[in-house]
Amino acid sequence: xxxxxxxxxxxxxLGAFVIKAGKTFLTVRxxxxxxxxxxxxxxxxxxxxxxxxxxxxLSSGIRTLAGLHGDWRPISELADLALGWFKQVNAEGMRRAxxxxxxxxxx
Length: 107
Hints:
Layout (H helix, E strand, L loop, with lengths): L6 H8 L3 E4 L4 E6 L5 E6 L1 H10 L8 E4 L2 E4 H18 L1 H10 L7
Antiparallel strand pairs: 1-2, 2-3, 4-5
Helix pairs in contact: 2-4, 3-4
């Protein structure tokens, strides 16, 4: 990724649901629990919090990522896609965010 504007790269890598992207954020179009379109801005800190508190929580079928609540499957899939993005463009920032919440990044 050599461009200063990462949006096109993110759309190519992740899909057309990406609205805007940078090294420290990923803004995507998603559906809320009512099926209504909403915009979600995901940061490395949001992902670190998600993986620290919710990714391994098997007691609930509902998860939250960056304020978006929903069924665990699409929320976890969105988190995995966002993690892949940040590992590509800002691995060190993702590692720092993980460390702040007590996680050890394995990448």
